[in-house]
């Protein structure tokens, strides 16, 4: 039995995963603004507490951790959405946990999980995007992650799609994730609909689903969704033009908005002359493992 851990920009999820990719037990928590001020302690205490509890119940073998950002040799080199830099997370955890621990970029973990057990299982060449607080990515060729050498690469969220655009947490302007992450969509909806910043995603989803022309906010919501689709389509079409994958997988909280976003996204890409090699259809699959993809993928990176 392995433990898969998914560190997100706003949450921590842990699961005990068996050899078939099934999660036997799972816990998760949202990271509050207060907890972010001492993020290392928050991460370490939550992981240690739950792993120690599970060690009394399961025969645990390894721990894999999915991290948003750049990682190398047990160190979080840079995670802009968690505010971490040169954080030796493996060393810190192994002071209390006597199990092998490996870390990898979260999008790559999710891609491995979906490639092994989920929406990309029937493809050998694919691209995977995680849309959440930011945008992460991975390229799979012949069922293996694209090898980019010492640095992880595939930082799709930080390709520039708007010259001199919105300032990103990474320090650049106009990054893909500032326009097409789910956080960007939700924040814009909250702002332009004059909603409290704590308004949950489900409330926003309901507003979009129930949006009709009789709604006084109809035009505002339609404009936000249209511009979000345009930005997401630009980024995805760039990746298609470079890698020509058999399919694109999308995970993160995008999966909960699939019924109102996915068809519009595919139609926009195909009908707006964005592809170098035009086609009548493209395969965009949403994550079957949903938000568990990071946990499952992390459990198999050992």
Compact summary:
This protein is 36% helix and 23% strand. With 302 residues, it is of the alpha/beta class.
Features:
Nucleotidyltransferase, domain 5, 302 residues, five-stranded mixed sheet, 36% helix, alpha/beta, 2 domains, single chain
Walk me through what this model shows:
The protein is an alpha/beta fold. It has two domains: 2-109 and 292-299, Nucleotidyltransferase, domain 5 (2-Layer Sandwich), CATH 3.30.420.40; 122-286, ATPase, nucleotide binding domain (Nucleotidyltransferase, domain 5). Helices cover 36% and strands 23% of the residues. It contains ten helices and 13 strands. The protein has helices spanning 33-36, 39-55, 89-93, 106-117, 177-180, 182-192, 201-209, 218-243, 258-271, 293-299, and strands spanning 2-7, 11-17, 23-30, 62-67, 70-72, 75-79, 84-87, 101-105, 125-131, 135-141, 144-145, 247-252, 284-286. It has a five-stranded mixed beta sheet. Strands 11-10-9-12-13 form a five-stranded mixed beta sheet, with helices on both faces. A three-stranded antiparallel beta sheet has the order 5-6-7. Strand 5 and strand 6 form a beta hairpin. Helix 6 packs antiparallel against helix 8 (218-243) and helix 8 packs across helix 9 (258-271). The longest helix has 26 residues, at 218-243. It is globular and about 55 Å long.
